[in-house]
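tokens incoming
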């Protein structure tokens, strides 16, 4: 019996991709905040691509078992920004956008190598392994991009929407954030609810990948 969300033989690849995806995501938050004048994350050693600085072991365990996980959140003090609202939105958006760029980067490299005919003399087994790696890379990074844009605390999407909410609404949400998070976890871990909500959002991965392929086909 396999107790993991992913095929057991693919777990090493999944874990490596997750470590890279999470590290780049959190680094993007920390680096952008640092450049905008908040050195909180910098002083805590978070402006780095070292996975150990961003890894949350419980979040990683949940990810390989349940397909849902998290990294350590980056501390941000928006009061240190010259333009708190605008800069905080950019800092928050930097994380999901970094995952979108990671997905595009690998697809760009694949198309470039394809155009250079690098794969022509490659064994079928090796080529299939590369395709498997690419499939996981694209799906995981695009899933993180879409998932983090959900306007639900504590996800990045909510931190962006929060900047446009009236103070009274923000206070109400903050007071009930633990119940909102609890309800969100119920949705994540109950398959029928997950499929009807987050699962529908994940269908957007296909048109995003199609758009990337059309752009790269045009470029190459």
């Amino acid at each position: 019996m396999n107790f993991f969300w992913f095929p057991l033989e693919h777990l090493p690849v999944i874990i490596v991709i997750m470590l890279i995806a999470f590290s780049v995501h959190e680094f993007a938050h920390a680096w952008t905040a640092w450049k905008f004048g908040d050195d909180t994350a910098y002083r805590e050693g978070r402006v780095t691509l070292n996975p150990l600085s961003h890894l949350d072991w419980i979040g990683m365990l949940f990810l390989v078992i349940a397909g849902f996980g998290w990294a350590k959140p980056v501390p941000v003090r928006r009061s240190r920004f010259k333009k708190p609202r605008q800069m905080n939105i950019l800092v928050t958006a930097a994380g999901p956008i970094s995952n979108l760029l990671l997905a595009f980067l690998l697809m760009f490299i694949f198309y470039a190598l394809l155009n250079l005919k690098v794969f022509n003399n490659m064994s079928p087994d090796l080529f299939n392994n590369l395709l498997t790696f690419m499939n996981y890379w694209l799906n995981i990074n695009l899933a993180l991009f879409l998932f983090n844009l959900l306007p639900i605390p504590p996800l990045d999407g909510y931190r962006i929407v929060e900047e446009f909410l009236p103070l009274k609404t923000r206070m109400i949400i903050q007071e009930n954030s633990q119940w909102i998070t609890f309800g969100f976890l119920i949705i994540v871990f109950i398959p029928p609810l997950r499929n009807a909500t987050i699962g529908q959002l994940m269908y957007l991965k296909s048109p995003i990948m199609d758009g990337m392929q059309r752009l790269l086909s045009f470029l190459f």
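note: The mean pLDDT is 88.
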